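#random but structural
TW: two for the price of one
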Amino acid sequence: MVPVKSFMIPREKFVTVPRDTDAQTAARIMRDREIGSLFVTNDREIIGIITDTDMVRRVVAAGTAATQTTVEQIMSAPIMTIEESKTLLDANDLMAQSHLRHLGVTREGKLVGVISVRDLVVFLTNLPRK
């Protein structure tokens, strides 16, 4: 089976926002870049992840003011991770069990990438059909 590292987005390509960024600004960044998540930082350290789902559940559905809510208040932390040598099937199982759409990818305990449900769909779509 294919290892997670083959389909992960490497850390160098992460789009990050400082922890005091307001939710509306973060949502606009995701919209403009056509991405479903941002990593939240405290200086250079990644402290969490905010996703489009977090925006819907923790801002819109809660009736919270998007311009007065920081990403730190609504981010998911700590980031659930999977080791880069694990398989895409392992990632799929972990996402399904945890009800997550994004997993951090680690190498020796350090965050080196991210994989999403969308990445798994791309992989499955490109499998040869019988």
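TW: number two ↓
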Amino acid sequence: MEKKRIDLSRTIYISISLLLSAIVYNLFLLPLSLVTGGTGGIATITHYVFNFDPAIMIFTISAGCVILSYLYIGKERTNGTILACIIYPILVKITSPIANIISIDQTEFLLVILFAAVLNGISNGLMYKSGYSSGGLPILSQILFEKFKIPIAKSSLVINIIIILVGANFFGTTKALYAIVFLYINNIVLDRVLLGISNNKAFYIITDKDEEVKEFIIKYLNHTATIFDVKGGFLQDKKKVILTVIPSREYYKTTEGIKEIDKDAFFMVTDAYEVQGAK
């Protein structure tokens, strides 16, 4: 029963994400001739240059990538990409009339790009949450990593840059710059969907007054602290590191308190997206 519930949840995630992605493509990216990389970017170019149906082009590229994946990566790792490769082109075809139903004012180009990027980031975030892969050109990056150990992030970046540059050749440099803005906002929103908004900050503090800082955290802020020994990489001197997790709203109170106790203290602060087992 539990497994069925998980599978249903994943199916809902991927269905919503693919539908939203198809709407973004047909409502924003295709009408604005915005090439943002991936199979959609290639489909946009071939649509305007050769009058090819974008849905058919996306399916053709995705199917080719799936075949390559079977040959070079294996059946087990390919299975997670098949669903998206089949459903997404169908949804692109079904939602293709949406631009005729909803009119977008293209004079506010930047606003439209930002809104589309946010929606697409949500879509991609839901996709990754589902545990499925979007398939398409990212499969090529996986193959390059498996066969030549080329980092996936680097090969994916190069592939998308090439597609964007080709798009710039047909639609202009300005459109390419907007595409970069789109991808940047998309990635920010994607991370937020995957990780959520951080409600806590993790402090790593190195100070000669570790007992005073620890007392400040425990007695004044009313939070726990963990102390562990470390050794400096250059001077090989032994130090103590205080680790504590503080609610984001107490960030400035904590930093000012540390500075007041030891103005020479070294501390690093990172987002803590999930905290369990401590009060």
